[in-house]
Design goal:
By secondary structure, the chain is of the alpha/beta class. It contains 13 helices and 14 strands. The radius of gyration is 21 Å and the shape is globular.
């Protein structure tokens, strides 16, 4: 295995997610590996309609001077309702870009189910990594139908299929038609999260209930989050750290309730916020979509010695940890107060959270098997 094309649901940015942890670990483990990391396409027409500065994508470029890691962002010039071949055109651009940077017969790692055409057109040996059940998310009928068709194709044709949660394995195995799936959950960089950091200067001095993660209505219970922020003040503050993908209305609602929305922070900065918070919270919706997840924040939260208050959402409700208190909407804010008052830190500083190095070894084994099938 020397060349790998990764089609990702997220950009390679300073907020590290599953793809970045695994790819970075694979590159460190194999000095011959080269990776073309394909980011979600720029969509200038949509940007203009939503009154954002249009994005124009970018050609392949190295990441932080690492010649073996290139990122590439194609452009979707027209909406799918206008250009019904939009996904096919994007796939062809990915293939031509891979050839242009010298990838002749790469392995293909697909995280975005919408990229099924890359696998179908290229013939590259494909690993499909499922991190969310987008078919259970609230989407328009046309979008749902498109994703369902793309995922069905990948589940039936990909040489290897990976899922991050047991629930995803359970849901997708029947569509796989008896072929095996592999469970590779998420993890955390344990050593980094246990190294002491300085308190962030914008973290309030009064008791802080902290949420770390992308702010998105697919996951975040907006009503519960606003009610919690309101209940905590003035004695405490609900602080939200992560990319804000909420509507303007929802963001205003949370701020008006007293939540402090700090926005995106780098992976190293996130560690400091987690270490210096008083309690970590997960005010998530509990539905078919969130039940499919293996939230990375579960492992990040567990890697620091803090109490955790969560709705009974997948991952947290299944974790055997005395750090975690499950609370419904009626008890959520009260549980935070109790946790702040009664928490006793573990002076041992140990963590049972799994390290990303374990997951990298699992991914490396699968990719080696995929390379052997390619011949």
């Amino acid at each position: 295995m020397t060349d790998l094309v990764v089609v990702s649901l997220e950009r390679w940015d300073r907020v590290w997610r599953r793809n970045q942890h695994l790819v970075s670990g694979l590159l460190a483990a194999d000095p011959k590996l080269r990776v073309l990391f394909v980011e979600p396409p720029a969509d200038p027409m949509h940007d203009l309609v939503t009154r954002h500065a249009p994005g124009w994508g970018h050609r392949p470029r190295s990441v932080e001077g690492r010649a073996r890691l290139l990122t590439y962002q194609p452009v979707k010039w027209m909406p799918r309702r206008v250009d019904r071949r939009a996904d096919r055109r994007l796939a062809q651009r990915v293939m031509s870009t891979a050839r242009r940077v010298g990838f002749e017969r790469p392995l293909l790692w697909i995280n975005d189910p919408g990229a099924a055409d890359v696998s179908a057109l290229s013939g590259w040996q494909t690993l499909y990594d499922i991190t969310d059940d987008w078919l259970a998310a609230d989407r328009a009928d046309s979008e749902h139908s498109r994703l369902a068709a793309s995922e069905a194709l990948l589940l039936s044709t990909a040489a290897e299929v990976v899922a991050c949660s047991p629930e995803l394995v359970r849901r997708k195995t029947p569509v796989r038609v008896g072929r095996p799936m592999t469970l590779i959950p998420n993890a955390v960089d344990v050593a980094a999260y246990q190294s002491p950091t300085q308190r962030p200067i914008d973290l309030p001095t009064k008791p802080v209930a902290l949420y770390v993660g992308t702010l998105h209505s697919d996951r975040l219970d907006i009503r519960l989050t606003a009610d919690t922020a309101s209940a905590l003040r003035p004695a405490g503050t609900l602080v939200l750290v992560g990319p804000d993908l909420l509507t303007a209305e929802d963001s205003h609602r949370l701020r008006d309730a007293g939540a402090l929305i700090l926005g995106t922070r780098s992976r190293d900065e996130v560690i400091a916020y987690l270490q210096h918070a008083d309690v970590l919270v997960v005010p998530h919706l509990v539905n078919a979509f969130t039940d499919s997840l293996d939230p990375i924040k579960l492992y990040e939260y567990q890697a620091v010695d803090k109490p955790i208050i969560s709705t009974p959402v997948a991952g947290f409700r299944d974790a055997a940890s005395d750090r975690i208190t499950l609370a419904d909407a009626e008890r959520f804010a009260a549980a935070i107060g109790v946790a702040v008052a009664e928490w006793q830190p573990d002076r041992g500083g140990s963590s049972s959270a799994p390290d990303w190095s374990i997951r990298v070894e699992q991914a490396q084994s699968l990719l080696s098997r995929l390379a052997g099938q390619q011949g």
